[in-house]
Amino acid sequence: MKSQIIQSFGAPSVFQFKEISKPELKPGHVLIQVSATSVNPIDTKVRAGAVPAVSPEFPAVLHGDVAGLVSAVGEGVTEFKVGDEVFGCAGGFKGTGGALAEYMLADVDLLAHKPKNLTMEEAAALPLVAITAWEALFNRANLVPGQDILIHAATGGVGHIAIQLAKWGGATVYTTASSQEKLEIGTRLGADVTINYREESVHDYVQKYTDGKGFDVVFDTVGGENLDRSFEAAAVHGTVAAIAARSTHDLSLVHSKGLSLHVTFMLLKILNKDMHKHYGEILKKVARLVEEDQLRPLLDSNMFTFDEVSKAHEYMESGEAIGKIVLKNNW
Fold first, then answer.
1. What is the distance, to the nearest Å, from the Cα of residue 92 to the centroid of all Cα atoms in its chain?
2. Directed axis angle between helix 41-48 and helix 309-318, to 10°?
3. Whole-model pTM above 0.85?
4. How does pLDDT run across 40-50, given as a tens digit for each residue?
């Protein structure tokens, strides 16, 4: 089958087209004829060699997010049949093959039926970011109706999903962005209040919107120095949920405010087979919300083909994307 592989870690140009063997069907798995995938920051980190502990062996087929058609069903599989449209985040990491190929072998516990009202490209944008946002908001931060939540990066991959999920969950949603265009998108996604972080300091917007008390929950999808800003924005006994915490911080504010800090690293449950089913269950809930018009992926206006994967990674690393970057299988 046709594929895009890497033989070593490196820059986006390291991808190369190669004919490789189609994966062999295994019990509890299906073979997916891949229609589309999307780029997530973890995909660029795997390609660059930044996270060798979770990287597949060379030659490696990358990308976890997939949408496509079931072309073969393994022994013991009852939930899916040949011809079903499915989506999930099901490989491209240690011990698994990824979606940048004509076919992908996937554990059925990591999949769900594709929402009927989405295209394959739209569905491929959802799995990793939707699972991450769901885990962070509901399983880690324990968001409940009536809470005030601050979500950083309104138009980021995880951020734009988190706004919609938090709103569906009954919270009052505040979100940050760097431009008027992104703030307007945040409003369309359902945010009650949008904040231009380049024009308002944390102190100013905490004073303005919470009378200085801070937010019940802060969801930090950015990391680095922004995590310190999240500690500052949180209320006493508040909760900070983070998805990027490979950094060093002064935890004085965490102590003085009695904050809870929760980190979500969604790959952990993909690398641990015993935890796969949890992600499939989240995707089923996500699919229902999509079909009920409660949730919608935000796609960047630039779409790429599998032959253009190097350009897609370059674009991701430029920081210019608004929403998810999608690749369509052109083979």
1. 14
2. 110
3. yes
4. 999 999 999 99
